[in-house]
């Protein structure tokens, strides 16, 4: 025998209203900076980031990048005097193989160095997707303008727990107020002597619903200047072009569901 519970229509309406109010409250609890970054992630690819395997070449090294909410795997492959090298960084850690043989003699120092190198390329290639990771703190610094275009200026820092070895790095992102694209970024870092950099988008390519950006990479004469001074130095023409950040042979493959 099936027992049916009768719920008055009035209670159903009240329950539905409570659900709507809860959802609205959850949405409104996000800060202004978080909402801006949410819009930027959507403008650059949104759900396509976590449902795709992405491959590209950067400075003669081949990368394969996969990042979902609960797992990640970054692979780089290249050839040098030792043979065919494959570095794999994922939730389990870092492994290097040469000609298919695992290299188990790497010191912790070199494992850290290789891991940071692989992670750095993946981080920049996937921006702004990673800016919603739990270890990321975002703060709005208000509005600003570059070359007649208005931007949201967002500062990003990281928690020590979950922020990696470079948790004390700081970033600024200039997010277009209309299209929510990240047109400029600047960052300070402390590895290899430290310094500050500013990047300007030089070219855009869209593949598989994901926006990929190439950059012109600038540095100041005095790399001890505060990160917040980089926009002023850029607009005054006082930054030196250091390098170009170009992704080539981009391929986006949807993941099987």
Instruction: Choose one word for the global shape.
Output: globular
What is the count of helical runs? 4
Distance between the termini: 39 Å
- Residue-averaged pLDDT: 88
In the CATH hierarchy, the third-tier topology is known as outer membrane lipoprotein receptor (LolB), chain A
Order of strands across the biggest sheet? Answer: 6-5-4-3-2-1-14
How many domains comprise the coordinates?
A: 1
Question: How would you describe this structure to a colleague?
Answer:
The protein is α+β, with helices and mostly antiparallel strands and 257 residues long. The protein has one domain (33-254): outer membrane lipoprotein receptor (LolB), chain A (Clam). The protein has 4 helices and 14 strands. It has helices spanning 9-28, 32-44, 108-126, 230-235; strands at residues 52-58, 61-67, 72-80, 83-90, 93-98, 101-102, 136-146, 149-158, 170-176, 182-189, 195-207, 210-220, 239-245, 248-254. The strands form 2 sheets. It has a 7-stranded antiparallel beta sheet, with helices on one face. Strands 7-8-9-10-11-12-13 form a 7-stranded antiparallel beta sheet. A hairpin with a 2-residue loop joins β5 and β6 (101-102).
């Amino acid at each position: 025998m099936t027992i049916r519970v009768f719920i008055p229509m009035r209670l159903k309406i009240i329950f539905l209203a409570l659900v709507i109010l809860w959802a609205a409250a959850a949405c409104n609890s996000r800060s202004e900076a978080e909402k801006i970054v949410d819009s930027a992630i959507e403008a650059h690819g949104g759900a396509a980031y976590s449902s795709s395997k992405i491959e590209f070449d950067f400075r003669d090294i081949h990368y394969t990048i996969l990042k979902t909410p609960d797992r990640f795997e970054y692979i780089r492959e290249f050839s040098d005097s030792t043979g065919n090298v494959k570095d794999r960084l994922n939730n389990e850690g870092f492994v290097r193989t040469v000609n298919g043989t695992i290299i188990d003699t790497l010191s912790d120092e070199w494992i850290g160095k290789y891991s940071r190198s692989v992670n750095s390329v993946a981080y920049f290639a996937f921006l702004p997707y990673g800016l919603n990771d739990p270890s990321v703190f975002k703060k709005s610094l208000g509005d600003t303008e570059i070359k007649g275009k208005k931007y949201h200026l967002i500062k990003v820092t990281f928690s020590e727990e979950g922020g990696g070895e470079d948790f004390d790095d700081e970033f600024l992102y200039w997010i277009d107020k209309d299209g929510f694209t990240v047109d400029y970024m600047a960052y300070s870092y402390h590895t290899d002597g430290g310094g500050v950099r500013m990047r300007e988008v030089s070219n855009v390519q869209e593949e598989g619903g994901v926006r990929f950006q190439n950059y012109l990479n600038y540095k100041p004469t005095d790399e001890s200047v505060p990160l917040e001074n980089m926009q002023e130095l850029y607009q005054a023409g006082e930054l030196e072009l250091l390098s170009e950040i170009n992704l080539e042979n981009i391929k986006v493959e949807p993941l099987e569901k």
